[in-house]
Write a structure and sequence with these properties.
The structure is a homodimer of 339-residue chains.
Chain A lengths: L7 H8 L3 H8 L7 H14 L5 H8 L2 E8 L5 H16 L3 E6 L4 H13 L2 E6 L15 E5 L9 E4 L2 H14 L5 E4 L6 H16 L9 E2 L5 H13 L6 E4 L2 H13 L6 E5 L13 E4 L2 H16 L8 E3 L3 E3 L17
Parallel strand pairs in A: 1-2, 1-3, 3-4, 4-5, 5-11, 6-7, 6-8, 8-9, 9-10
Antiparallel strand pairs in A: 10-12
Helix pairs in contact in A: 1-2, 1-3, 2-3, 5-11, 7-8, 9-10
Chain B binds a DNA duplex (30 and 30 nucleotides) through helix 2 and helix 4.
DNA sequence: ACCACTCGTGACATCGATTACCTACCCAGC
DNA sequence: GCTGGGTAGGTAATCGATGTCACGAGTGGT
């Protein structure tokens, strides 16, 4: 009740000093006599004073908030990343503001612009745009995740999309598959592009030709992946295996296989997901732990905020193949006529 | 480059007027001559001026931000809710700050306190504490989700936990089950409490006794649910069906059944989840769409912000039973000796 | 011709804290 | 005794926008 509006001047008055000195105590300025400091601290405790973050931000020109800009909060991958960032931020006493781009470059700019204007201490961004030079003038720390910065020199926490995809596809090839479909995101996404390159590289390494018609690189939603998987499998020359280039696609393709009872089609996905181990067959994946990515990104950001001046780095989050069954199925030879 | 620090006074100067008048134009004050307004508007456009949200908040005493306080962003249910809230907020030009309580009442207070101090326009809270009187003094709009407010008169968007659970369990009973386990959250959660009550009511309605030893109400994490399911099924008098009282528990129990190859045990879960339809058997659930809850909550909040003075309401989000297979399995009579 | 009023505007205080700059004092050293 | 230097603390400007209030110019009624 009574706690309405306790200002710094109130504290100062109670401590019999001026606002400036109270402010010094608050900010840990050493030039304050111990006795005075004690009086101020007692006043703060008694009045339950807490500084107004808005006023402080306005004056200091920096807010104790970190912004997180991602594709969608509903995407389990980004949800986990965000959750981890929030944990680290909370531990450091900062708050987190999230906003989702829905993969729109315009919206990314809009959101980041707003955050910069709000003077956030830093931002962690999964970019949707293709050129980030516009962030150059920003005075806050920036860390990119999932996709790297273009035309901008900042830290990034990424995974080795190329090698991850290559490993996944090589795994399928090693199990005898020759006709492997690619189901992934639109290629204007850096990650998608790299993963498709990995898919091709795996083929090249095994001297296998790539059948371009098996490449479905236009699945931005779960439903798209489901639909494309259905189409691919309906073909007379259907693939015997599918590589899904991201979690969303895996979560679209797995149900499609299930719905068609195609337990004979091998599947390896990029990105682990809940229930992947309990599907029939369990889904083999290349796991890039969102928790680790979130943590690395947040730590990197705080490192910067603490004033590290080191040159920016691209940090690589670990990848590992989790063998569960779906990726080890042998190629089936269904109704075939030729060959 | 040049856009650094365009202040209202700069705009005013460019338009040959005073800051106050420029401010009037910005805030749509009608008392401005059309000519002046035009000049100011042109200056704004030319200088690409955008008001400083911090300064504005400080002065107006309210921030264009809404706070979302939930258990965990990593929880798919809350992630979806949050995502929906963020969509609505973005559409209204507000930003969203999220923070997770990890189910700690202390942390809930801490977080909400911080948000209120930040003068957020409103908060949407999935409470962890058991008494919310402390929010009474807050000057911002408040909407509760998932769990209702206690000792506080604000809007809430809830689901009918009692009837949902009752329906789910009645469904299992209708399919012949007599020994139905309950796997759920700690009972100090309102929702858990109500759902267990629904479980009991369904038994009572069918004149079935409740075997208290089949009630595992201490699973706050996915792993807990997995473990408890394993224990329950290892008993000589194992249940023939399981009701999981929330998504987390469903996601723990389903893999447990799968790992034990117990495709004979029926399962109905409270809350839908990704892949539920693709598990073997597909999981029958009582669905309470997080999207709908998030949207209703956000809309309600904006309704309040728009100045609605109506008395607070408890809005009920719809529930529906999604029949998929796991809930319709007949009771199996495994290695039984008695009866 | 004068009062009463509205209309468009600007000067100045204000939101709550921080910072630049300056004072007062104490003690050492010449 | 006076200067120099360091320390504790105060005063006022500042961050950027908005609220208060007052002021000059038209307008219309009498």
């Amino acid at each position: 009740m009574s706690r309405r509006k306790v200002r710094l001047t109130d504290v100062a008055a109670a401590a019999g000093t001026s606002a400036k000195t109270a402010s010094r105590v608050l900010n840990g300025d050493p030039r304050v006599a111990v006795a005075t400091r004690a009086r101020v601290e007692r006043a703060i405790a008694e009045l339950q004073y807490r500084p107004d973050p808005l006023a402080r931000s306005l004056r200091k020109g920096t807010d104790e908030t970190i912004g997180v800009v991602i594709d969608s909060i509903a995407d389990p991958f980004f949800a986990s990343v965000t959750s981890e960032i929030e944990k680290v931020a909370f531990a450091n006493g900062l708050t987190v503001t999230v906003a989702s781009t829905g993969r729109s470059a315009d919206r990314e700019r809009l959101l980041l612009d707003g955050m910069v204007r709000r003077k956030v201490a830093g931002v962690i961004v999964a970019p949707a745009s293709l050129n980030h030079a516009y962030l150059g003038g920003a005075s806050c720390a920036v860390v990119f995740i999932d996709r790297g910065p273009v035309a901008l020199d900042v830290d990034a926490v990424l995974v080795d999309d190329f090698h991850g995809a290559r490993t996944a596809v090589a795994h399928l090839i090693a199990h005898g598959h020759r006709r492997i479909a690619y189901v992934g995101d639109l290629l204007n996404m850096q990650t998608a592009d790299q993963r498709l390159a990995g898919y091709r590289a795996a083929h090249a390494a095994a001297d296998l030709p790539v059948d371009e018609s098996l490449i479905a690189a236009d699945c931005s939603e779960i439903a798209d992946a489901t639909e494309r998987a259905g189409q691919l499998l309906a073909r007379p020359d259907a693939p015997t295996a599918i590589f899904t280039a991201n979690t969303r696609c895996s979560m679209g393709v797995a149900p499609a296989l299930h719905a068609l009872s195609r337990t004979d089609v091998a599947l390896v996905g990029f990105g682990d997901f809940l229930m992947a181990a309990s599907l029939q067959p369990a889904v083999t994946v290349i796991d890039h732990s969102p928790e680790v990515i979130g943590q690395l990104a947040a730590e990197r950001l705080f490192h910067r905020l603490a004033g590290s001046g080191e040159p920016s780095r691209r940090i690589e989050a670990p990848l590992r193949l989790i063998v569960r069954g779906s990726g080890e199925l042998p190629p089936s030879t269904p109704v075939r006529r030729d060959n």
